[in-house]
Specification:
Blueprint (H helix, E strand, L loop, with lengths): L8 H5 L3 H22 L3 E2 L2 H11 L3 E6 L7 H8 L6 H4 L3 E5 L18 E6 L5 E5 L14 H17 L4 H4 L38 H14 L6 H4 L10 E3 L7 E4 L4 H5 L6 E5 L2 E2 L3 H9 L6 E9 L2 E9 L15 H9 L2 E4 L11 E6 L7 H5 L6 E2 L11
Parallel strand pairs: 1-3, 2-3
Antiparallel strand pairs: 2-4, 4-5, 6-7, 8-9, 8-10, 10-11, 12-13, 13-14
Length: 397
């Protein structure tokens, strides 16, 4: 599955902005031609997909895929090119590919918007069977997703569909509360966008990218001068931040439990297969993240049912106050705005050889452009180690 990783950012560094923009436009147009020509997927038309699913009594699989983004393109290509492992399963779904979030129903499609690839499995009436798509960093796709894992999530969704609507009440936990705005373009920060992609002209600039939703949420808090909640600053915590390492080729199977972590304290063991967490039936690590995302940031106790040695065992994951802050959010595009506000665009880290007393913060990255370049303009360089700030040498004050 190493083919899942691709990085083409070098390309964007050696071409002019105009050429790069034209290349992005071409990707979007070529993708539309390819998908519509193949006819296996409904292209960017959710109402059509739900109507067809209702008529055929089939579940819906929705792939949310930001075309210009490159990090997950190989996984997506495997999907669209009708991978032989997935094709027999996909034949049981009404399949729709969504390439922008313009007009997206945010009361239904709630997911980790720092990703550029996410999958939903749904009933035609909007009941959610599960989610797929997990990410910790753009270089870590092999550890987070796989074709095998996606196939098993699909199989699980089909099992839930067979039991529907008897399990409708259980599935209610997979939907969140009403959002601040029903669709992305209603957020003040995104009001310049329309409800659909431009049919002609500059399609890319008319697109609301997934990460822009997270940016817009944070901007809305700032506009209202409200304190940002922990679930806004630290959304969709990765299970590994709690010491729970899951197998990307399975639904929710534990491959390792880190010592002295909430997962270890709960009693999770290597080899456990987590069936439910906080009442959420699990089809994938993304479902684990959804359950964690919905947990109280101030601390919570989440019961989990696991299969262990042929028996079902219940363990309780106790989350202490401030538990979300264990997660690394530095990879998130939505963290760029936070760095701009707090560190002038610098990504800071503590060097391994930092002294136990005093301050030592190394600038791992320094923003280069626009409002993200405040630190650069002040004279900071990547690799600088900050040993005092405003006359202070204590990180705690």
């Amino acid at each position: 599955m190493h083919r899942l990783i691709v990085s083409l950012f070098v390309f964007s560094l050696v071409v002019t902005p105009a050429v790069a923009q034209n290349a992005r436009e071409k990707k979007v147009r070529d993708d539309k031609i390819k998908v519509e020509g193949d006819g296996f997927w409904i292209y960017n038309d959710l109402p059509k997909a739900f109507a067809e699913a209702k008529a055929k009594s089939k579940p819906v699989v929705v792939v949310l895929r930001c075309i210009p983004c490159e990090e997950c393109v190989k996984l997506d290509d495997e999907l669209v090119d009708q991978n032989p492992t997935l094709r027999p399963l996909l034949d049981n779904f009404v399949r729709v590919r969504v390439v922008s979030t313009n007009g997206l129903d945010l009361s239904l499609f709630q997911f980790d918007t720092d990703q550029s690839f996410a999958v939903f499995f749904l009933n035609a009436d909007g009941a959610i069977y599960g989610r797929y798509g997990t990410r910790s960093h753009r270089t870590n796709w092999v550890g987070d997703v796989s074709i095998e894992g996606l196939a098993k999530a699909m199989a699980g969704a089909l099992d839930l569909h067979k039991d529907y609507p008897k399990n409708k009440a259980v599935l209610a936990v997979k939907r969140g509360p009403a959002p601040a705005f029903p669709v992305p373009e209603k957020f003040p920060a995104l009001s310049k966008y329309g409800s659909t992609l431009a049919a002609t002209g500059n399609i890319v600039q008319s697109c609301i990218h997934c990460h822009q939703i997270g940016d817009a949420v944070k901007s809305y808090y700032r506009q209202r001068k409200e304190v940002m909640r922990d679930d806004v600053l630290f959304p969709y915590p990765h299970p590994k931040s709690l010491g729970l390492i899951l197998d990307p080729k399975e639904r929710a199977s534990v491959t390792k439990v880190e010592a002295d972590t909430p997962a270890a304290n709960a009693g999770f063991l290597t080899g456990d297969v987590i069936r439910t967490l906080a009442g959420h039936p699990l089809l994938s690590p993304a479902d684990v993240q959804w359950a964690l995302h919905r947990a109280d940031a101030g601390g919570a106790k989440l019961p989990a049912v696991v299969s262990r040695g042929g028996k079902e065992v219940t363990v309780t994951l106790s989350l202490p106050a401030g538990w979300r802050q264990r997660d690394d959010i530095s990879w998130r595009a939505s963290a760029w705005g936070l760095r701009r506000m707090v560190t002038g665009g610098m990504l800071l880290e503590t060097p391994e050889d930092a002294p136990k007393n005093g301050m030592a913060l190394r600038a791992k990255h320094v923003g280069q452009y626009g409002p993200h370049a405040a630190a650069k303009v002040a004279g900071f360089l990547a690799g600088d180690v900050i040993v005092s700030f405003d006359g202070k040498t204590d990180l705690l004050r």
